[in-house]
Amino acid sequence: MARAWLKLMLTTGVLFSLATFIAPTRTQARAETPATPTIAEKTAGAQKLAGYFNLYWDAKQGKLWLEVDKWGSEFLYQSGLPAGIGSNDIGLDRGQLGATRIVRFERSGPKVLLIQENLEYRAVSNDADERRAVHDSFAESALWGFKVEAEEKDRALVDATDFFLRDAHGIPAALRRTKQGPYHVDASRCAIYLPQTKNFPMNTEVEATLTFAGEEPGRWVRDVTPSPESITVREHHSFVQLPPAGYKPRAYDPRSSFFGISYMDYATPISEPIVKRFIARHRLEKKDPQAAVSEAVQPIVYYLERVPRRDAAGRRGLDGPALQRDSVGASRDEGMVVRGGGD
Predict the structure, then answer these.
(1) Confidence (pLDDT) at 161
(2) Which residues make beta-bridge pairs with 199?
(3) Domain boundaries, the chain
(4) Which segments of the chain are extended strands (E)?
(5) Mean pLDDT of 171-193
(6) Tens digits of per-residue pLDDT, 203-242?
(7) Cα first-last separation, the chain
(8) CB distance 103 to 87 below 8 Å
(9) Rounded Cα–Cα distance for residues 192 and 194 (Å)
(10) I need a surface site. Which of 106, 114, 122, 134 has the fewest CB within 10 A?
(11) What pLDDT score does 340 carry?
């Protein structure tokens, strides 16, 4: 009995000693968990491009950091193809616009999601419960998930490099559709294109050079590409602030010459069509609302690309600046200005 008691005491003493030894170690491990750095610390040495969403270019690592400071606020995400393949048959031409999306940033812990709104199905109603019911009935799309790498107050810094170096234009699908062979993005030959990566107070612009690799190029690709197994183009991404409220939509009439947009409104009375159709038109407001014809408060501005031009005799003329001097004008009835030399 004495021997058993002694054994029990020794065992208890060993366990107590181990617990005493391990406990501080666990506490110390928790204390040594690195804190999330500040944005200033994480971007030290990087080139800051201040604007709608601040960007930071780290040339040493080839990374583009994105500072998110607007949560749950909708903005426009427009992608495009500023430098294309060069074949009309394939249909991936320079200057081609991609998808137009209404998106927002949402954060959950260390995760930041870029979510595309589903505007095909709505409830145009003052009833919050009705709006929520329709919102929750149809899926949204999380376009990308980011990890918070640094933060300050309500601002978070994420590594957006992979997001901007992905294919947002559906180029492999277009090549398959035109029977030009299977292609995929080769990450080792993709990079941020700095000359057209810029920032402004109401829009953030990022451009990327992307290379698509394939082993069975079709004839049309071989006709226009120096090395058909490698197709290098550029894709552009724009984050744009939405205009303020106050736009007055105009109902679509199939007899008109306008393009139309449509969506389903589940708050519609049972006696009316659930599908709503409106014309796509410019937002113009008269300086003088009482006048039959008036100058616009803010005219619509079109920018012409910097391209050489020729006169009727085929002689080469000047590019952007001359084009701008010749073409700047306004149609006062329509409130339209045309300018040259835009990026």
Answers:
(1) 98
(2) 204
(3) 39-240, 245-281, 283-342
(4) 47-49, 55-58, 63-68, 75-83, 96-108, 111-116, 121-122, 141-152, 155-159, 183-185, 191-192, 198-199, 203-214, 230-240, 260-265, 275-279, 300-305, 330-331, 336-342
(5) 96
(6) 999 999 999 999 999 999 999 999 999 999 999 999 999 9
(7) 93
(8) no
(9) 6
(10) 106
(11) 53
Token pair 């306008």: residue = 258
SS3 9: helix
Nearest to 164 by CA among 187, 184, 182: 187
Output the six-digit token pair for 17: 């000693």
Any idea of the CA torsion for 320, 324, 325, 330, to the nearest 10 degrees? 170
Question: The whole model's pTM is what?
Answer: 0.80
DSSP string, 101-158: EEEEEEEETTEEEEEE---SEE--SS-HHHHHHHHHHS--EEEEEEEEEEEETTEEEE
Angle at 106 between CA 105 and CA 111, to 5 degrees: 110
Whole-angstrom distance, CA of residue 146 vs CA of residue 114? 8
Strand partners, 126: none
Q: Which tokens is 128 given?
A: 């919050």
Q: Which residue has the tokens 């910097």?
A: 306
Q: Distance between CA atoms of 322 and 101, rounded to whole angstroms? A: 35
